[in-house]
Design goal:
Elements (H helix, E strand, L loop, with lengths): L10 H20 L9 E5 L6 H16 L7 E5 L4 H7 L21 H19 L7 H11 L3 H11 L6 H10 L9
Parallel strand pairs: 1-2
Helix pairs in contact: 1-2, 2-3, 4-5, 4-6, 5-6
Length: about 190
C-alpha cells in the first residue's frame, strides 16, 4: 500500500487498505490459508475514541471489514456503554445480529455467561477426548462461584485445564481442591 495520506482517510478505508487488502494480497500471491491467521482482534476502550461519531465509524468499519464471511476473525470490544456502542448492539442495530454482548456493571451478574462458557468449552474437550464424564455441573458451579463474577478467572481455568499434555480430570481436581498456603494470599 503506497498511500501517503492514508491516515487522513476514513477508518474503514484505513482498515481496508492496511489490513484487509494486505491479507487478500498475501492469500492470492503466497497461497495463505486464512485458518492459520490469529483469530482474535481485541479493541479495548472503544469509549475513549474522540466522540460518538468516531465510535460509530469504528464499529461500522469493524462490521464492514472484519466480520466478512470469508475472514476468520472474532472481534472482542471492551468499552463502557456509550450511546453509539449501545445503539449498534441493540435490537435493530447494525451489530446486533453478529455480536454477543456481555454487559458488565455492578448490577450485572456474569455467572450465567461464565457457566455457559465453561459448559461449552468442557463439552468440546469431551468430544475431543472421547471422555464425557470428566466434569459435572457442580464442578462448573464451583468454578463460577470461585470466579466471583470475573470472567477472566474461568477463561484462565479453561486454558489451563485444556493443556494438551495433561489429564483434564486431574487438572480440574487440582483447581477444585486448591487452597492457599498459609504464606500465600488468595
Amino acid at each position: 500500500m503506497d498511500d501517503p495520506i492514508i491516515f487522513d482517510r476514513s477508518l474503514q478505508a484505513q482498515m481496508d487498505s492496511l489490513l484487509i487488502c494486505l491479507i487478500e494480497q498475501v492469500r492470492e500471491h503466497a497461497g495463505l490459508n486464512l485458518s492459520t491467521l490469529p483469530h482474535a482482534i481485541l479493541i479495548d476502550s472503544l469509549d475513549e475514541c474522540q466522540g460518538e461519531d468516531r465510535q460509530e465509524e469504528l464499529l461500522t468499519a469493524v462490521r464492514e471489514c472484519l466480520l466478512s464471511d470469508d475472514l476468520p476473525f472474532c472481534v472482542f470490544i471492551a468499552s463502557r456503554p456509550e450511546l453509539a456502542i449501545c445503539t449498534a448492539l441493540a435490537p435493530g442495530g447494525h451489530l446486533h445480529a453478529v455480536a454477543y454482548h456481555i454487559q458488565l456493571s455492578e448490577h450485572h451478574d456474569a455467572s450465567g455467561d461464565m457457566g455457559q462458557f465453561l459448559w461449552r468449552r468442557f463439552e468440546q474437550l469431551s468430544c475431543q477426548t472421547g471422555n464425557p464424564h470428566w466434569f459435572t455441573k457442580k464442578n462448573i458451579e464451583t468454578l463460577v462461584k470461585a470466579g466471583s463474577g470475573q470472567f477472566i478467572y474461568v477463561a484462565m481455568v479453561y486454558r489451563w485445564i485444556s493443556e494438551r499434555r495433561a489429564s483434564l480430570a486431574e487438572r480440574l481436581k487440582i483447581i477444585l481442591t486448591w487452597t492457599p498456603d498459609t504464606e500465600q494470599k488468595a
